[in-house]
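re: that chain from earlier
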Amino acid sequence: MTISVGDKLPDVTLVKATENGPEQVNAAEYFKGKKVALFSVPGAFTPTCSARHLPGYVEKADELKSKGVDEIVATAVNDAFVMGAWNNASGSNDITMLADGNGDFAEAVGLTMDGSGFGLGKRGQRYSMVVEDGVVTQLNVEQPGDFSVSSAEHMLGQL
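^ sequence. v structure.
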């Protein structure tokens, strides 16, 4: 079942990429008490994700924060080391990388995809959501192959 507006985020473990190495966080706890712009990509360093998705959130970080966003979070079915390297290569200190290495979060929110045809296996879909105090208030799921409603620009229009 796919998560919907009004639903609480699931009680699953993600791994935060930090300068001191991976740090496990509970999703339900991590998002409590703050307004978060969360976006999911099929994979770090993949073409659209690296050329457009992450750079859009980096570029619009100040605008998102000026509209009340406390934190911008990127997630993907990659390990924390890959997510950290991706942030170092293309991101910024304004983006928090939460790795979903086993795909537990993607599965729990019902937003998985099969990337086997590209050698990616099971991944998270491309989407964005606004989460306020652990509850989804906006949800934008892309159609396969598209990139529009999960962009930072689209999210800015929802805040």
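DSSP finds six helices and nine strands in the chain.
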